[in-house]
Amino acid sequence: MITFNQVTKKYSSEKTAVKDVDFTVDEGKIVVLLGPSGCGKTTLLRMVNRLESITEGSIVIDNENSMDLDAIELRRKIGYVIQSNGLFPNMTIEENVMIVTDLLGWNKKKKKERFNYLMKLIGLDPKIYGKRYPHELSGGQQQRIGVVRALAADPPVMLMDEPFGALDPIIREKIQDEFLQIQREVKKTILFVSHDIDEAIKMADKIMLLRDGEIMQYDTPSKMLSHPENEFVNQFFGKDRAIKSLSLHTVRNLQEVIGLAEMDESIYDTKTINVNQDLRNTLSMLLNQEADQVIVTNDQDEKIGSITIDLVQKYLHYEIKGKMSVSQEG
Amino acid sequence: MEQWARFLEINAPRILELTLDHALLVSLAIVVALLIGVPLGIYLTTNEYLAGTVLQVASVTLTIPSLALFGIMIPIFSLINKGIGFLPAFVALVLYSQLPIIRNTYTAIKNVNPEMRDAAIGMGMKTHQRLLRVEIPNAMPVIMAGIRTAVVLNIGIAVIAAYIGAGGLGVLITQGISRGDNYLIISGSLAVALLAIIADGLLLLIQKRFTTKAVVE
């Protein structure tokens, strides 16, 4: 758990980078710091492992004030991933991954076991890749190594500064999915900086939107999209925020709430999608007119119904309006 | 050709001996220069204020004409009765090597990718760990380039040290000039050139041997 208590960062008396930031990242959750460039999100992140000093306030990590610890010790307890992965070209992949455990003085056997485990997490063969140098790997593989390097000493907290920002969109999505999979297993408390709205919606348990060093809204992605607290949040997520919010829901959610349509056996031009597909992709598929009928299949590949644009619209209406009436009552 | 053969037959042992003297003077000077310059260059990366001053002083030293610097050495070392000979030449060469060595070491480490440095600090490396594990290994090609520059520079300048009685291949050239003996001048000059080329080649080999392929690229 990371708690920010009235954290302020001033570079000079006029220049305030972060102003009175007060929030908590719950244990095992991903909080994405989102905002336009210069909003203070990276500064806020770097204050956690004291790469930036704190002018006022305090940051408490797992009940310990970050200022009470030695900076070196503190950093070794926090996983740190940066955009351009920051791998050291003079070290092999194994040496790179195991740096922090090395600094902490782990023995050889323990390091080897940990390395094998970590490489398995990202699906790279430790025997093949361990001896290679970073430049012999693709950009995506390097970034995966950057992530597991941060996980090496099993730190409870991780800081990720636009970790997937330098990757091309296809690889980025794949690595995001992989990372969420890993997170389900390791359950770290993660602070994640991004300027990509879609990435934030996908990765975050909660999003913190910042402007000029101040919190604009701190909420779950769906709340943020359906109930922006002010004009800035509204504009930041854009006119298509309803469409964006669809990526938070799957066909299964829709099926559970309003049910699927009957299949029409007389239509031959059909396509199938999995029930776990998100609604944003589903809607794109429907709008592209890729087939006359889109059939939904379950995990066993059995056809369980069909889906139409009308159904998506109905679901969206229910999601946004439905929740709104509840919150107004409450 | 016949005359060359005869010249070499008589002078070969002397040329060899002077070449060895020359190589010895330069290598000793470089070893000492390295012991001073590399640690100093590394230290300066952690002390910006001192860095400017030291690099300035080293720059000025290199602009002093070599003959003048040897000249300055004579009165200074006369104080301990060593005004001419090996010692003043050795000290002058050490001074000359400082700029390429310090400056290259300093710039090489300063220019290590800032993200790499950021990652190293963020993972909890102490200053010396960061220097030894990350910055110096990645700065190695540029540091070595500075050392090679210093070696080649010194092999050339050591020729002039013959004027203050330090021996070396400069003896052949100065004698050749005063006697109008082309054989001496040419053999001395070629030996110096050859020595410089061989030394540079050797250092390049060492550099390649001790840096990982990834760093060179």
UniProtKB/TrEMBL annotation, chain A:
<keyword id="KW-0677">Repeat</keyword>
<dbReference type="InterPro" id="IPR027417">
    <property type="entry name" value="P-loop_NTPase"/>
</dbReference>
<comment type="subunit">
    <text>The complex is composed of two ATP-binding proteins (OpuCA), two transmembrane proteins (OpuCB and OpuCD) and a solute-binding protein (OpuCC).</text>
</comment>
<feature type="domain" description="ABC transporter">
    <location>
        <begin position="2"/>
        <end position="237"/>
    </location>
</feature>
<dbReference type="GO" id="GO:0015418">
    <property type="term" value="F:ABC-type quaternary ammonium compound transporting activity"/>
</dbReference>
<dbReference type="GO" id="GO:0006865">
    <property type="term" value="P:amino acid transport"/>
</dbReference>
<comment type="subunit">
    <text>The complex is probably composed of two ATP-binding proteins, two transmembrane proteins and a solute-binding protein.</text>
</comment>
<keyword id="KW-0067">ATP-binding</keyword>
<keyword id="KW-0813">Transport</keyword>
<dbReference type="GO" id="GO:0031460">
    <property type="term" value="P:glycine betaine transport"/>
</dbReference>
<protein>
    <recommendedName>
        <fullName>Quaternary amine transport ATP-binding protein</fullName>
        <ecNumber>7.6.2.9</ecNumber>
    </recommendedName>
</protein>
<keyword id="KW-0472">Membrane</keyword>
<keyword id="KW-0547">Nucleotide-binding</keyword>
<dbReference type="InterPro" id="IPR017871">
    <property type="entry name" value="ABC_transporter-like_CS"/>
</dbReference>
<dbReference type="InterPro" id="IPR003593">
    <property type="entry name" value="AAA+_ATPase"/>
</dbReference>
<dbReference type="GO" id="GO:0005524">
    <property type="term" value="F:ATP binding"/>
</dbReference>
<dbReference type="InterPro" id="IPR003439">
    <property type="entry name" value="ABC_transporter-like_ATP-bd"/>
</dbReference>
<dbReference type="GO" id="GO:0016887">
    <property type="term" value="F:ATP hydrolysis activity"/>
</dbReference>
<keyword id="KW-0997">Cell inner membrane</keyword>
<dbReference type="GO" id="GO:0005886">
    <property type="term" value="C:plasma membrane"/>
</dbReference>
<comment type="similarity">
    <text>Belongs to the ABC transporter superfamily.</text>
</comment>
<dbReference type="InterPro" id="IPR005892">
    <property type="entry name" value="Gly-betaine_transp_ATP-bd"/>
</dbReference>
Automatic annotation (TrEMBL), chain B:
<protein>
    <submittedName>
        <fullName>L-proline glycine betaine ABC transport system permease protein ProW</fullName>
    </submittedName>
</protein>
<dbReference type="InterPro" id="IPR035906">
    <property type="entry name" value="MetI-like_sf"/>
</dbReference>
<dbReference type="Pfam" id="PF00528">
    <property type="entry name" value="BPD_transp_1"/>
</dbReference>
<feature type="transmembrane region" description="Helical">
    <location>
        <begin position="83"/>
        <end position="102"/>
    </location>
</feature>
<keyword id="KW-0472">Membrane</keyword>
<comment type="similarity">
    <text>Belongs to the binding-protein-dependent transport system permease family.</text>
</comment>
<feature type="transmembrane region" description="Helical">
    <location>
        <begin position="183"/>
        <end position="206"/>
    </location>
</feature>
<dbReference type="GO" id="GO:0005886">
    <property type="term" value="C:plasma membrane"/>
</dbReference>
<feature type="transmembrane region" description="Helical">
    <location>
        <begin position="57"/>
        <end position="77"/>
    </location>
</feature>
<feature type="transmembrane region" description="Helical">
    <location>
        <begin position="150"/>
        <end position="177"/>
    </location>
</feature>
<keyword id="KW-0813">Transport</keyword>
<feature type="transmembrane region" description="Helical">
    <location>
        <begin position="23"/>
        <end position="45"/>
    </location>
</feature>
<keyword id="KW-1133">Transmembrane helix</keyword>
<dbReference type="InterPro" id="IPR051204">
    <property type="entry name" value="ABC_transp_perm/SBD"/>
</dbReference>
<feature type="domain" description="ABC transmembrane type-1">
    <location>
        <begin position="19"/>
        <end position="207"/>
    </location>
</feature>
<dbReference type="GO" id="GO:0031460">
    <property type="term" value="P:glycine betaine transport"/>
</dbReference>
<dbReference type="GO" id="GO:0055085">
    <property type="term" value="P:transmembrane transport"/>
</dbReference>
<dbReference type="InterPro" id="IPR000515">
    <property type="entry name" value="MetI-like"/>
</dbReference>
<keyword id="KW-0812">Transmembrane</keyword>
